């Protein structure tokens, strides 16, 4: 038997063993094409559109013939159920046709070109976005990375056409309904993925009808004990309160009839997953959940909604703090309704929801309901995508995330999507009244970066509700926030990473710091390379101006394959080439001045110099910047012209091979209390607060640090932290190095030789 593995369920080629399987459909009613037809005929009237859907059904009926799912159902049944769900969500004709066709390229010999020729380019584009990529099992990729890549493809498809995710959600919903046919480990994997990825995006799109089912079906797999305990208690509570609920509904109906208001009234039961979150994640008891059973009133106009609210508040006692006006201020997923909680005459508390019919449809089907109001108007997918972007203001952020995706791997992309979009439930206002949604814990700095990267980089403070606050202030829903910027701002620093909550803000700050560190390191290398050259050429009687004229020529730059003299200094800093090699290339010979001239004493006070030349005094002695020697190091002196003696560590590459100019030098015995600069590099595995922890080590050990920079290596997720610190001798340095090496994620500390 040939097996074809697929998401949500496995399908197998027909053989004699499959023909007797019971068609289960996960215990849900099994639908036929006629059922699908009945739904879309109610709102799709164009005969060509209807024919396209029917042609799509007949096409897959032939292509998927003889293929069965693990549950025993013909694979065609899965396609019918997916199309049924899409039609129930008021999907357009192309969307329903693509729902039938969404697996045909993956599972049969059909190509995208075949789809394009038969059903049009629009339909082919959707099917292509839904077609899976064959996973290559590479040893260095984890299952999480594969999943992230898969999810990234789904959402990139959604960014181009929202119909892609509507079909994907319908596909996942039917797969969850039939999940019991799979092995337990596969059930848990799909349930976890559904809760983390698919249910949140259904919520963001306002498709409550799908969201609640996905959550409840997943919870039953992941937390069966809790699920069934809540379900049992919910049933008992509903039985106990049914009489009270019906009594309240009748009283409300009588009031509305008396005032001549047209309405429909129904009851709503809170989903098990919503109750689970309040009980197990927020610590509430079931008795503290007042809205598990609600009354929903559907009327004709917005004005009717507010009129009904006034009548209910006049007739029943409302609970303070429980009123929410989502009509005046819709949720980011377009949800609109009035919510209030009242105490009925018998003392029972009920939530009352008031909305128009259109609001109710959008509350249930969200963005999916958008198409039905455009049917018959030759409405293009581009227009639809634009209007969705206008109605769902978070969708702009989503599109912006996708525009930056080339800079993100799949894991980073999903992290940004999860934190910045899925978890966004704090709604703040700009001074112009624009609503911006942010995750819990977000600060003005998160808002600044959400407005624009430049606003974030130059932010210096914020006004929250007209009060000046620091950038680390936690924002709450309803805050009016104005970002203060400055052109003279130095930009982000390491501490900003601890202030921001959103993944996108963190990403921008890291990029800024990496660029800043790279610039700093470049300037430092240029400075060091130039200094090495100046020391070398001064010894040959060549001053700085003449040296620059010699080096900054096309001949030299071209020979060393660089475009500027700064680039040449960077190479010299890395000892490739060294100044001697350049001098040889230019034919510059050392002037023989004689030892006596080179060793000429100057009127130089050496009392503060920690080094002596065989007990002699009066020489101008300097410590080499290239290797930063400190007391306790093995050292050697290098005789220079006009600059006296430069002291190097004995292993410094800048004095290797120069034995004729080296002399013996020693550290003085009584050095007093003095500190000397030393350059070190700390190699670490990247993490949050890394630089801050290193600074704390320096501070707690009273080590002066005058320079600190970090360079992140994205390929290895490692960070190099460069520091110039001041210590009294090598023993103190060794002690500091030992402490650093014992710090979490630090794996090497070494001195730098420039």
Structure notes:
There is one protein chain. This protein is an alpha+beta fold. The protein has 4 domains: 3-13 and 24-132 and 142-222, Hypothetical protein af1432 (Orthogonal Bundle), CATH 1.10.3210.10; 225-368, Beta Polymerase, domain 2 (2-Layer Sandwich), CATH 3.30.460.10; 517-667, no CATH class; 676-751, Alpha-Beta Plaits, CATH 3.30.70.260. The chain has 29 helices and 24 strands. Strands 4, 5, 6, 7, 8 and 9 form a 6-stranded mixed beta sheet that branches. It has a 4-stranded mixed beta sheet with strand order 16-18-17-19, with no helix packed on it. A 4-stranded antiparallel beta sheet has the order 22-23-21-24. Strand 8 (338-343) and strand 9 (349-356) form a beta hairpin. Helix 4 (93-101) packs across helix 9 (163-177) and helix 6 (112-119) packs antiparallel against helix 7. The longest helix has 36 residues, at 503-538. The model is unreliable at 1-23, 133-142, 373-377 and 592-605 (pLDDT under 50).
């Amino acid at each position: 038997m040939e097996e074809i593995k697929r998401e949500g369920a496995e399908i197998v080629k027909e053989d004699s063993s499959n023909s007797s399987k019971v068609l289960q459909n996960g215990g849900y009613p099994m639908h036929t094409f006629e059922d699908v037809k009945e739904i879309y005929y109610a709102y799709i009237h164009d005969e060509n559109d209807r024919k396209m859907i029917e042609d799509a059904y007949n096409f897959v009926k032939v292509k998927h013939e003889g293929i069965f799912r693990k549950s025993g159902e013909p694979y065609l049944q899965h396609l019918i159920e997916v199309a049924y769900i899409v039609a129930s969500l008021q999907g357009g004709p192309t969307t329903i046709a693509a729902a039938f066709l969404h697996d045909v390229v993956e599972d049969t010999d059909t190509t995208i070109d075949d789809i394009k020729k038969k059903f049009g380019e629009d339909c082919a584009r959707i099917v292509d976005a839904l077609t899976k990529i064959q996973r290559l099992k590479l040893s260095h990729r984890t299952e999480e990375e594969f999943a992230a890549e898969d999810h990234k493809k789904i959402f990139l498809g959604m960014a181009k056409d929202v119909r892609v995710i509507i079909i994907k959600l319908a596909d996942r919903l039917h797969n969850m309904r039939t999940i019991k046919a799979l092995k337990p480990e596969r059930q848990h994997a799909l349930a976890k993925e559904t809760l983390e990825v698919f249910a949140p995006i259904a919520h963001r799109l306002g498709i409550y009808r799908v969201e609640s089912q996905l959550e409840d079906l997943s919870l039953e797999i992941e937390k069966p004990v809790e699920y069934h305990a809540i379900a049992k208690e919910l049933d008992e509570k509903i039985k106990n309160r049914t009489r009270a609920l019906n009594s309240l509904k009748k009283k409300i109906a009588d009031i509305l009839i008396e005032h001549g208001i047209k309405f429909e009234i129904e009851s709503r039961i809170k989903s098990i997953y919503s109750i689970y979150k309040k009980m197990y994640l927020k610590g509430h008891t079931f008795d503290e959940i007042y809205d598990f059973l609600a009354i929903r009133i559907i009327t004709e106009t917005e004005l009717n909604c507010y009129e009904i609210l006034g009548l209910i508040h006049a007739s029943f006692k409302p609970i303070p703090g429980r009123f929410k006006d989502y009509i005046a201020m819709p949720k980011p997923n377009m949800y609109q309704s009035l919510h209030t909680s009242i105490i009925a005459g018998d003392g029972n508390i009920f939530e009352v929801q008031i909305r128009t019919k259109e609001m109710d449809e959008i509350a249930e089907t969200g963005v999916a309901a958008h198409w039905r109001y455009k049917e018959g108007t030759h409405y293009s997918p581009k227009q639809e995508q634009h209007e969705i972007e206008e109605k769902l203001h978070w969708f702009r952020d989503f599109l912006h995330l996708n525009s930056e995706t080339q800079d993100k791997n799949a894991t980073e992309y999903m992290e940004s999507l999860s934190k910045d979009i899925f978890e966004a439930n704090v709604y703040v206002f700009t001074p112009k009244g624009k609503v911006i949604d942010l995750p819990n814990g977000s600060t003005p700095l998160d808002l600044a970066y959400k407005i624009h990267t430049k606003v974030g980089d130059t932010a210096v403070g914020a006004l929250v509700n007209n009060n000046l606050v620091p950038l680390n202030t936690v924002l709450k829903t309803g805050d009016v926030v104005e970002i203060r910027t400055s052109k003279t701002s130095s930009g982000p620093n390491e501490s900003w990473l601890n202030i921001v909550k959103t993944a996108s803000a963190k990403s921008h700050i890291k990029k800024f710091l990496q660029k800043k560190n790279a610039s700093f390191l470049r300037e430092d290398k240029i400075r060091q390379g130039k200094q090495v050259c100046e020391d070398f050429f001064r010894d040959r009687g060549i001053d700085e101006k003449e040296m620059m004229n010699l080096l900054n020529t096309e001949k030299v730059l071209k020979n060393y394959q660089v475009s500027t003299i700064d680039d040449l200094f960077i190479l010299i800093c890395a000892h490739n080439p060294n100044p001697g090699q350049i001098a040889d290339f230019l034919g510059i010979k050392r002037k023989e001045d004689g030892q006596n001239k080179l060793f000429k004493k100057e009127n130089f006070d050496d009392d503060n110099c920690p080094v002596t030349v065989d007990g002699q005094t009066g020489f101008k002695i300097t410590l080499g910047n290239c290797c930063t020697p400190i007391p306790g190091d093995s050292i050697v002196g290098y005789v220079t012209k006009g600059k006296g003696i430069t002291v190097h560590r004995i292993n410094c590459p800048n004095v290797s091979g120069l034995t004729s100019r080296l002399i013996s030098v020693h550290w003085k015995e009584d050095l007093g209390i003095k500190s000397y600069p030393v350059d070190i590099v700390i190699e670490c595995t990247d993490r949050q607060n890394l630089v801050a922890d290193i600074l704390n080590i320096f501070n707690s050990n009273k080590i002066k640090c005058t320079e600190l920079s970090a360079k992140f290596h994205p390929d290895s997720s490692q960070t190099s932290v460069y520091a110039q610190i001041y210590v009294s001798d090598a023993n103190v340095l060794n002690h500091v190095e030992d402490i650093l090496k014992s710090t979490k994620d630090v794996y090497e500390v070494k001195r730098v030789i420039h």
